[in-house]
Predict the structure.
Amino acid sequence: MNDNLLQDKSLADTQNKVRKIYNKLIAEKNIPHHENFLDLTIPNLKRGFCIIKDFVKTLPDTAGVYRMIGVNDDILYVGKAKNLQRRVTNYTNENRLNRRLQLMVAKTVRMEFTNTSSEAEALLLEANLIKSLDPKYNILLKDDKSFAMLLIRKDHDYPQILKHRGKQATKGKYFGPFASTWAVNQTIEILEKIFLLRTCSDGDFSSRTRACLLYQIKRCSGPCVKHISVDDYEKNIILAESFLSGKSSDIQKEFAEKMQIASDNMDYEQALVWRDRIKAMTNIQSDQNINIETLKDVDIFALVRNGGVVCIEVIFFRGGRNYGNRSYFPKHGEEDSDKNILSSFIMQFYNNRPAPHEIMLNISIANQNLMIDALSLANQDYESVGTYKIKISSNHRGDRAKVIAHAEDNAKQSLSRKLMDTQAQTKFLDKMANLLAMDRTPARVEVYDNSHIQGTNAIGAMIVAGKEGFVKKAYRKFNIKHSASQTDGGYADGDDFAMMNEVLTRRLKNIKIADNSVDSVESVDMDSVPDIIIVDGGRGQLNQAYGVLVDLNLQDHIKLMGVAKGERRNSGDESLVFIDQPTVHLDLNDPLQYFIQRLRDEAHRFAIGTHRIKRSKDMLKNPLDEIKGVGSKRKKALLHHFGSAKAVGSAKKDDLLKVDGVSKELAEIIYNHFHDS
């Protein structure tokens, strides 16, 4: 089964939140209405501030990592914070943001957060996420388009550590990328204090006759004047590489032992050196459950349930490093147990990817041994991972138990936010049911819109919304087909009524009526029958839609509504048109008005986007592609000879024969193609 069945990738949650925020602003602060506020594809600084402020309300004052996310789940920025609430609040003050940060905030439509035990953990996780996610605005905050790296050179007896950008052409070991130049500089300073590595250039190193100031303040071992041997310096390099690979606990333990030995030998000056190095490490090491050395290649699954909804948090470790986390909300029945939900989820999760050596769970699952065998067998299809037997465990102690608890905490927070947004969506659907005199909450609402330019490149669009928000996997586009009432370029005069009739007929024609119930015989993606159909338009479009329902005997099973633009054609001025009840004008500040507008705007966005794609493709078409017998080679020869397809169309038969590969018969075909009239 496809991963799309496990993921809710729609922006419904975000759009619900935006609508709720905007409605509150209009009601309480009397801000002017502007339709672009709700178009997430258009950057809007005021909207970005409102969205971030809404997240700040529920943020803890603990360390963590935050991700700013734009339309289509584009990762805009990854940052770390000692205090998440305080740090994220900074993005709501326009005076503290430069132009680039203002644009980033304007593009932000939602945020994600991961709590950590310390700022040091947040720094490590931030580096891991930036490496795996490649967020746009972390790059734009650099001096150039590349991330800053930390390089330990290997082309010198006394390797230098330095900040590096661009191609990795220099011989050495690279670490990173880092979030900012500041982060690299901070790391280099840490390595200087702990491992006493040099940062000077080779030219400065070779010209030195006495140690520099860094040696005097105990931030360099003085290799330039041979205060340390090559072998001892190499040992420091090895320790530094281990530290950057996440093995800081072992190094700190080794330093503590050396400090104790120096103290026992009454070499107190050397003991102080080890003490200072331990102190420097303690400032950035702390309690590291974000990167844990015992976790090599592991996936962690934590399931939590609340309010009949399940959230599964997945955290990925590779090579002992945390590569981020993600929350999933799989669909399930109320009677399904947590064990069965997690088992089914894991099997679908690895349907198109290899499983790692180990899988850690917060609960035990059904048929664990069977799953181990199945996943191990499936991994044989991936040559790159090799052959190994997968381990699945659910009982954990020590650091592993901390990681499981960390995953559960993140799952609980994600689920809490999800439930709040779902409740708001259900509330709006209930209001719509009351408006249409329905006796139940609608489970599926379909909204239709057309897009074309004077009938050409005509597209019909259908979007779907339910209790979980927009169901993007159910969206459909309809290429308007030609009929006897059409011109060659499309519907005559851009007949919106006829287009709406065609689209709805094609969508609903396979739904059958049997025993006063509605069943569908269409494909699995189209088998759900809508409770409500909304058409973008007034009485004319509504009558066309009702005519289709009557022809298909569905008028008693599907409620119908039209959204007509007002005289000024502005959002907030719409009329709701019905077949069997008077037209309704909702109050400008009525939340239901904004909910219906959001549905209509999403259908309009999808229709316009699809139309533009089709129009762009048509603009790139070459008339020669439509001629039978003219392949890529002959088309290339014709264009080289005449310069353009238009010139080919104006050419005489004798001129066409002068082109390599064009026979007398083909010249006749080409000529007739352009001169049929």
About this structure: The two ends are 53 Å apart (CA to CA). The longest helix spans residues 398-435. The first strand starts at residue 64 and ends at 69.
